[in-house]
Predict the 3D structure of the following.
Amino acid sequence: MKNLKSINYEHAAQRKTFIGLVYSRGSKEIKETILNGLDERFSRLHREGRIHIHDLEAYGVTYNCLTPNILTGFPYESFNNYSDFRKILELFNYYKLIIVSLGNEQSGGIGIPNFDEEVEIIYKNLNIAKNEINFQFLRECIDSFLKWINEARDRCGQVQYYVTLNLGLASGEISRYVTSSVLTCFKASDYIRPNIIFKLKDGINRRKGDKNYDLFCLAMNCTCKKMIPTYFLCDSNHNLKVDPFKIALMGCRSKVYQNEHGEDTTIGRANIVYNTINLPRIALEIEKVNSELTKDEKVRLFKEKWQEIAEIVKDLLFDRYYKICKLDADDFSANLQYNLRIIDISKVDSMEEVFKNGTLSIGFIGLSETIELLTGEKYFASEENHKIAIDIIKMMKDTIDRYRKEYNMNFSLLGTSGEFISGRFPSVDKKYFSHPLLDKKFYTNSFHVDVDSGLNSFEKLRFEGVFHKFCNGGCISYLEFQSAPLNNVEAISELIEYAIKQDINYLGFNFPMDRCLDCSTTGTFDDCGKCGSNNIQRIRRVSGYLEDSEFFTQGKKAEVAYRKPNI
Amino acid sequence: MKIVINSIDYSGSIVDGPGIRTILFMQGCKRKCEDCHNPITWDIEKGKKFDIKDIVKDLRKKCLNKKLTISGGEPLLQYPATLELVKMLDDFNIVLYTGSEFDDIPKEILQYLDYIKVGEYIKEKRSTIIPFMGSNNQKFIKLKGEKFEIN
């Protein structure tokens, strides 16, 4: 009998409980059953580590993540006779209810597209008076809401909710108060969740003189201390034509926007499923079997082999998609009851009408290792190699765009975060191949340059920026600091401006964040910089969400050990 | 005029003043603070001698955001050279790191600086949680602007 201590972490939000144990064992068995029931074409790729089928236990049962449309279903009338305080309480209870229900109904995260504006609209529609005492209470409720997201481990009996609040654009009085409250409370707290994404847009908050410039400064101040928020750069070239209120990101980086079946928007839409292709594996095979080929021939062969796998992955995505399309609206009771979707679920004949608005994503990991295997050098070692890297990513995007057109489905390319697979892929590959690249025990995230590249921040952004526009299913670039950039808003602001010029979609700043468990001082230290205690919690970010490094997966631990700062 | 330096770090620091900063490490320091993070800069004989003009030329070429922190070593040990350097970089945003106290610093140089970090490093007062400083006794002072503000 497995005991609680022996649970292997598959993601860092997991903790050990009795219900959690039951869930873990159950999901393991379900995964095996599902894998055994799949067409061998699909299951073999997964078992051999050529691809990873994410959230396998959810296969045919549910979708991945959702940016719910909170506003359509909000039950204003039920709160009519309540006091202002009660109305404010119920507003946040409603968010919690949706988070809890969705947490049990889907496999992935929950993104709130414009938290500031939504709260303002609900606040006004509930006719809550705008006075000092209500505002004070609103701020307390926001803090309490953040605290709950940070602490609750109700999901699957052991897991925190993956919640992301997008904000920063709305300029109404209450919206601004909401954004400033979220940032102020988060900065003052010990919370490492929720994920907060500040949306940056010229004319709204990016420059001195913009109405919400003060909120941007507040956000950067918070980032200097807490790594959160991260920044969605709406002024990057490939985002310029998009209405920033209609687009939002998941903290893990997933992006849902273009829609073949309705309005281009993120709100009310989901990523149905994503699968990730192990790029270094293809390169390892070429290296072993076709080592006599020239560099160009190897790259060409790589593309062919990737296309063969992508073709199967596309079919696999369809298989999973059609399985959930056959389910009933009742199987998604929270989606139905709270009317969270781009279209009204209660009025559709088939769930396909709902899910066709979702995205099917093909992800990738280990571009850096791949280029090194194919050319003998890192992709950031020369402009020539960088070009090869760009060419490969462009080929993937072109193929996926072709699928989008041919099948009239929302296929997209995802720069996968690879929390679990960054370790799984190389450990499987080691069974088949021996290569020094496998010794470090993790593959580099999506298209990122190696974590020990030693490139400075500007160079890193320049090399990675060019990939962002291809990853319409989401991606992020991180900058890695040696220590917290305490009070250095100017540095954050310089880097953000440079990132926009490099066409970066989504930008995050990482640094070792140590917190004294005795006196709550935060900074970067061995022993506490204030009281000298050695009772220190070490918070790090590897893929999307901040975590206590004690609970990292194997691949994440390996990556953190290899990291070198970009500055 | 000649200047003796240890090195110039163009990788961009975020902990030596506001913004992303290039660091010029001057050579030579007589303080010999215990736990100094840069003892290789103590002996001025071990530095590299350059024409100030050439240093300026290099900085103009590589420090694109024009944010420079002059550290060391003790920059004021070569006061005439340091003064000459900051005069030639009057369009740069400059932070000077010195172990001297504010009142002991020649006033003429202050007009060319944006910020100055003053006070020697005291091991017992070491801190890793105050922006831009090594120990609690030090001060980071903003110079440009209407009046001096202490951060």
